[in-house]
Amino acid sequence: MRTGMVTAGRVPDEGDVVLLVAAAREGDRAAFGRLYERYARMVHGILLGRVPVGEVEDLVQDVFVVAMRQVHTLRDVNCFGGWLAAVARNRANDYHRRSVELVEFTEQGPEGAVRLGGEADDGAAILGVIRGLPEAYRETLILRLVEGMTGPEIAERTGLTAGSVRVNLHRGMQMLREKLG
Question: In Å, how far are 96, 100, 133 from 173, measured between CA atoms?
Fold first, then answer.
């Protein structure tokens, strides 16, 4: 790997990701830092759909610590995004397994309507509705609407096909519109 590439201060393009993953597998922390810059929004979005909002930031860090320790187990460097998405999903599952005895307080009424006040809470209410959607739609909608990723970015980083992302976004938006009225 070219040493200057990682420390040049630019976000890598698609071809560079394979080189960065290969370098990270060999212990290059700067390369892993670049991978973090590229994939942190995706991991954040995946976790946002699965765990309490207040836990997301810490869990993003946990995911990358696990990934840094386990990147050597990745068989195909071309599959890093999908592998990292799976690590994030597994970390969310672990969070829930470990916190079974805790009960999360939500401000929801019996009809499932989120009762919050103010403009800032509209986002929380919408996030609550998105979290109630099936997983495939929930994840792609959060990556698109909250994390600001484009369809092609979602596909490339999660390992989904562009067609699957389009379908998930379309159906998810339909479901979201129905639930929001």
Answer: 27, 31, 10
At residue 109, does pLDDT exceed 70? Answer: no
> Tens of pLDDT along 113-150?
333 344 455 778 888 889 899 988 999 999 998 899 99
pTM of the model: 0.74
Considering the domain 1-104 in this protein, what is its CATH number?
1.10.1740.10
> Residue type for 143, please?
L
- Regarding the domain delimited by 106-181, which CATH topology (the fold level of the hierarchy) does it fall under? Arc Repressor Mutant, subunit A (1.10.10)
Residues 6 or more apart in contact with residue 153 via CB below 8 angstroms: 143
- CATH 1.10.10.10 range(s) for the chain read 106-181
Place of tokens 């320790």: 69
